[in-house]
Write a structure and sequence with these properties.
The complex is a heterodimer of chains A (about 120) and B (about 110). Chain A contains no helices and twelve strands. Chain A has about 120 residues and is mainly beta. The radius of gyration of chain A is 14 Å and the shape is globular. In chain B, a hairpin with a 3-residue loop joins strand 4 (about 30-40) and strand 5. The relative contact order of chain B is 0.33. Classes of the chains: A mainly beta (about 120), B mainly beta (about 110). Chains A and B meet through strand 5, strand 6 and strand 11 of A and strand 4, strand 5, strand 9 and strand 10 of B.
Chain lengths: ~120, ~110
């Protein structure tokens, strides 16, 4: 079974509008973390936002917020007031605590976001 | 700022060659990772290392090996390159322990096997 599922291969949004990118996850751990990364066409992976499994408040970072619904195992990224520079691939990732190593990361297949002027 | 440096941005090799991809980080991170990224498949973990000389297989280790002799350097080795290993390879590092710290990525190596 997929650990991270992103069901939207591509999304379009009008400039200045808000957009939600979906992410669902699968884990039996109580302690885990969820991350969102942005990958522009240049290729670098840029960390956007983090949500811990025990965090009661939804994470926010500037125009990015995370809609965390623990019971539904979803961690959707909301981008408000979209800008042309937001056009990129977006990846959802999960960190699980595993045995001695303490860190195992799983990535989704990504969502390609295009912002339309 | 954390800097993760991959030795090559683009690399072209021939089938059967032994290929080395090098990754260096400058933040004394315990954990280092190698991923390959293919369209429609996202990032898939090849190997990771949680300390010097320690390594764990990821989801797709076949055809690859790794070396971590020093904390700052994590090398990915393609023992005998094949065309199905043509891909983008991403290295990442992260501080150890269970925390909210993200992975920091290098710029990637686009590897073509002819």
């Amino acid at each position: 079974a997929q650990k991270i599922t992103q069901t939207q291969p591509g999304m379009f949004v009008q400039e200045k509008e808000a957009v939600t990118l979906d992410c669902t996850y699968d884990t039996s751990d109580q302690s885990y973390g969820l991350f969102w990364y942005k990958q522009p066409s240049s290729g670098e992976m840029i960390f956007l936002i983090y949500q811990g499994s025990y965090d009661e408040q939804n994470a926010t970072e500037g125009r990015y917020s995370l809609n965390f619904q623990k019971a539904r195992k979803s961690a959707n990224l909301v981008i408000s007031a979209s800008q042309l520079g937001d056009s990129a691939m977006y990846f959802c990732a999960m960190r699980e605590a595993t045995g001695n190593t303490g860190n195992q990361f799983y990535f989704g297949t990504g969502t390609s976001l295009t912002v339309i002027p | 700022d954390v800097k993760v440096t991959q030795s090559s941005r683009y690399l072209v090799k021939r089938t059967g060659e032994k290929v080395f991809l090098e990754c260096v980080q400058d933040m004394d991170h315990e954990n280092m990772f190698w991923y390959r990224q293919d369209p429609g498949l996202g990032l898939r973990l090849i190997y990771f290392s949680y300390d010097v000389k320690m390594k764990e297989k990821g989801d797709i280790p076949e055809g690859y090996s790794v070396s971590r002799e020093k904390k700052e350097r994590f090398s990915l080795i393609l023992e005998s390159a094949s065309t199905n290993q043509t891909s983008m390879y991403l290295c990442a590092s992260r501080t150890g322990g269970i925390s909210n710290q993200p992975q920091h990525f290098g710029d990637g190596t686009r590897l073509s096997i002819l």
